[in-house]
Amino acid sequence: TASDHLILEPHEVSRPDGGHYQVFTPFSKTWRTRLSEPQGQSRLAQVQPGLKQLEKRNRGEDLEKIFKLKWANLLGDTLKTRFEDQLENFSKHNHSQLTVPIPAAGSLEAYRQVLLFKKTIENYAEGRDFPSQNHTSGLSTYLKNGSITSAQIYSLLSTGLQTESTHQPFLRQLIWREFYYHILFHHPRVEVESFIQKYRNINWQNRSDWFELWKQGQTGFPLVDAGMRQLLTTGWMHNRVRMVVASFLTKDLLIDWRWGEKWFMQNLLDGDLAPNNGGWQWAASTGCDPQPYFRIFNPELQSRRFDPHGNYIRKFVPELRDCSDRDIHAPPDIARRRGYPSPLVKHSDQKIIALNLFKI
Q: How far is the C-alpha of 217 from the C-alpha of 225, rounded, in Å?
């Protein structure tokens, strides 16, 4: 289709006065209205032939019967040297440089992931914030690399997204993704600077030694460290934990959000410029419709609330596996003797400094 990276393009969602939205809630309401109109419905209709092909492939139908055009028709006798060898060499060269496992790729795998998620989407609303539970969609990497589109996902889940309250949190995430792309389109400067002008020159402390400890998951705050180690070992991080580690970097360590945004883009398999930038600026309170600067995540309380039994922490921070459910969120001295670091900072003190930084 002519337009498939987003369901609705920036020029298709505008305010009554012709301007563009900078707050999510009114954007979301207008987005939903536009989707129900002919242009939006046409966009969804355009993906149906592709979905039918994917369903045939998923059923194991003969590809010869599904596709009329083949690589041999395009490349002829040069097929082997121009395509197969180059693809094989490219794969071998890059595979040797991998440090994280790569999930199964391609449109068919993405399609199957949507069908798998469809079976458990009722659990998404309550379970998506708990990193030890497998209740996320698993679609972000496929969306990022173009193996599947938002319109295809919406079409496959459309009945529930239109009617079921349990499906609304997931639809809301799809709309957030579109919102951040619209913001990037209208304000390309957000790629390099804060959306909120008065926060462009915050006096970040930017301690490089603290930044290195944050990257390696050695801050002494278990949920933060578990998230950063998950990123290093898997190339992915649970979304709730992304918010926690981003808040910790900017509000506790007082480090410029752009440092963290760049690190995420370098390491995330689903690193996607617009939502990654939007998420970081939201957490840093510098972006469009952000988390208010005076609302600062307490990493220990976040840990107790969203990983109450410490299962997520134990998976990625083995030094703490023997801690009790109560102690694992603020490990006692015995954990330090096993090699786990003491807290890098005191949250209550850093919170006061952060609040003062934003009083511009």
A: 4
Place of tokens 């991080």: 237
| C-alpha–C-alpha distance, residues 230 and 163, integer Å | 35
Instruction: Name the residue among 207, 216, 208, 193 with its Cα closest to residue 284.
Output: 193
- Following DSSP, what letter does each residue of 313-351 receive, concatenated? HHHH-GGGTTS-TTGGGS--HHHHHTTPPPPSS-HHHHH
- Angle between the N-to-C axes of helices 222-234 and 239-247, in degrees from 0 to 180, rounded to the nearest 10: 120
CB-based contact 8:40 (threshold 8 Å): yes
Contact predicate 252/354, CB 8 Å: yes
| Torsion sign over Cα 321, 323, 328, 334 | negative
pTM assigned to the model: 0.91
Digit-coded pLDDT (tens) for 76-97: 666 555 555 565 676 677 777 7
- Whole-number Å distance between alpha carbons of 324 and 315: 14
Tell me the CA distances in angstroms from 119 to 17, 108, 134, 158, 349, one per residue in order: 42, 17, 13, 14, 45
Radius of gyration, CA atoms only, the chain? 23
The two three-digit tokens of residue 59, written as one number: 């059923």
Q: Look at the chain and count its residues.
A: 360
The mean pLDDT of 41-53, rounded to a whole number, is 93
Using DSSP's 3-state secondary structure scheme, residue 19 falls into coil
Distance of CA 243 to the CA centre of its chain: 10
CA gap 4, 147 in Å, rounded = 11
| Residue entry with tokens 């998950």 | 230
Q: What is the pLDDT of residue 340?
A: 94
CB 240 within 8 A of CB 131: yes
Name which of 207, 208, 213 is nearest 225 in CA terms: 213
- Cα separation, 173 vs 223, in Å, equals 23
The answer to whether 351 touches 342, Cβ cutoff 8 Å, is no
